[in-house]
């Protein structure tokens, strides 16, 4: 009998730090094992990029009447983006790997997660969406 909950297990990793350290040498083979590290890498890299942008904004807008609150919005967007679109993208990639019956090395989860942040930053800098 097929057990759907066992397909979504994430218990291979002991902690959040183990995922970021890439300590698991075993390939990720269930949907949950693939999705979760990709999502965490996407979230952490996005928060890092948006924190750097917020620090620049603090330095340049510190004397502005309303601009000094802009870094807070940057940090919020650094979390909201991966929680919405990062979850969906990571799930789609994990679904494709799982449907193809492929195992994902932990380093690939890191590349996919950070790649989502790079792609989002690239779209933001090139203003492709403004041309639509």
From TrEMBL:
It is found in: Membrane. Pfam families: Tmemb_170. It is a multi-pass membrane protein. The keyword Calcium does not apply. The chain crosses the membrane at residues 38-58, 70-97, 109-130. Belongs to the TMEM170 family. This is Transmembrane protein 170A. It comes from Bombyx mori (Silk moth).
